[in-house]
Amino acid sequence: MVRAMTSQPGNAKLAQIAREAGVSLSTASKVLNNRPGVSDATRKRIEALLEKNGYRRRRRTEQTTTTMVELLLDDLDTPWSEEILSGVLAGLNKPYVPIISARTSEDWNISDWLEEVLARKSAGVIIPLFEFPKEAEERLARSGIPTVLVDPTGEVPKNVPTVGSNDYIGVREATEYLIAQGHTRIAFIGGPTYLQTAASRLDGFRGAMRQAGIAVDPMLVTSGEFRYEDGSEHARGLLALPNPPTAIFAASDMQAAGVYAVAWERGLKIPDDLSVVGFDDLPTSRMLLPPLTTVHHAVREMAQFGATTLMQLLEGKGGSMPTHIELTTNLIVRQSVRKLP
Fold this sequence. Notes:
Blueprint: E1 3-6, H1 14-21, H2 25-32, H3 40-52, E2 56-59, E3 68-73, H4 79-91, E4 97-102, H5 110-120, E5 124-128, H6 134-143, E6 147-150, E7 162-165, H7 167-180, E8 186-190, H8 196-211, E9 221-223, H9 228-239, E10 247-250, H10 253-265, E11 275-280, H11 283-287, E12 293-296, H12 299-314, E13 324-327, E14 330-332
Parallel strand pairs: 3-4, 3-5, 5-6, 6-7, 7-13, 8-9, 8-10, 10-11, 11-12
Antiparallel strand pairs: 1-2, 12-14
Helix pairs in contact: 1-2, 1-3, 2-6, 4-12, 5-6, 7-8, 9-10
Domain HTH lacI-type: 12-66
GO molecular function: DNA-binding transcription factor activity; transcription cis-regulatory region binding
Organism: Bifidobacterium scaligerum
């Protein structure tokens, strides 16, 4: 019978055993906790080292995992979250099913969520658009629960697989398109300044303007959350300026939808009176009138690829996979930008 093992006081640390075996701490934890996702040859090598260092075996039935995969979302009722969920469902194999958690309450904290994940003995974790604290990385690694980050917002952990996109290039290409249409007074509504993704999008905008020799007016650069309300709030301020912009680049499609609403309130026509560009290419961008020119961010594709990556880890096929995967972005030209005379 295959048995799981537990450590005793005075035994070598699991991290030392992982180094000696030439594997990550997460892989060593999987073997210790009898979790899937490790090749037979590697499992045997780690088990031999565990026994050599005095780890005692216990019955496998004492530690079992479920077929639940944790999906941690920022919100539940946004088109972005719907795209993430659709992608994850497309990427998961039977019998695995997602258990959805959301950071919707003010008193939410990752420590409590981790306790719930460990109590459920979940098979794996997918976390989109979230800065992954070291505490969470280490706890999940020690538990042997494989984790994949989708569109990570902060510093990317070395040993955690990630799926993202090149936001800088996407925004730069879209800004160059606006400039090619004759726009020089371009406003930019960015995302939260503490997010790496928001910083990359702002850098892409500034880079394209600098390359074109166009000075960026500080009055035209604002930041907020990637939400409808933030787009409308900042659009009101921008369009009330004595010399308003001829184009607004919103760092998310939801912000762009807020810009549309304010333009309608002020009796402005898009694109005749104001050109607008978004970022994400959510279904919302196609429903706006006129349809929104935006950067395809491959949200659903990233989520699907993240779920597929997790499946490979659970099936022990992750050894040949790249740790960090970056999908390309591309500009989707629709009807929200006017070419100036």
